Amino acid sequence: SCDAGGDQQVTADEDGTVVVLLDGSGTDDPQERIVQWSWIDGTGREIGTADRLRVKLMRGSHRFELRIRDSDGRWSSDSLDVRVE
After folding, report:
1. Could you tell me if residue 42 is left (phi over 0), alpha (psi between -120 and 50 degrees) or otherwise beta?
2. CB–CB of 2/64 below 8 Å?
3. Minimal CA–CA distance to 29: which of 68, 79, 66?
4. 15 Ramachandran zone, left/alpha/beta (phi>0; psi -120 to 50)
């Protein structure tokens, strides 16, 4: 079962940006058959292919989706929202 982590609310630095950790390491795969990780941003673009990913964000609301694929070709996904104030 795919787990992108919980929604986050963070405060931006003085320059209006902040680095956030997207952490899908809570994904449960008892048979350890995950062969692909894919983080997708709000525009539908893939931004990373690991279970954890650091992203630099500007103030505002951001949505991310984590998609995983197992060795049988089955996909699962989960999403989270990040609010930068």
Report:
1. alpha
2. no
3. 68
4. alpha
Cα dihedral 11, 51, 66, 58, rounded to 10, equals 20
Residue 84's SS3 state is: strand
Alpha helix ranges (H) inside 1-85 = none
Q: What is the mean pLDDT of the chain?
A: 96
Span 29-66, pLDDT tens digits? 888 899 999 999 999 999 999 999 999 999 999 999 99
Over 90: is that where the pLDDT of 74 sits? yes
Q: Are strands 34-40 and 60-70 parallel, antiparallel or unpaired?
A: antiparallel
Which residues contact residue 30 at a Cβ distance below 8 angstroms, ignoring those fewer than 6 apart?
none
Name the residue with tokens 């929202």.
81
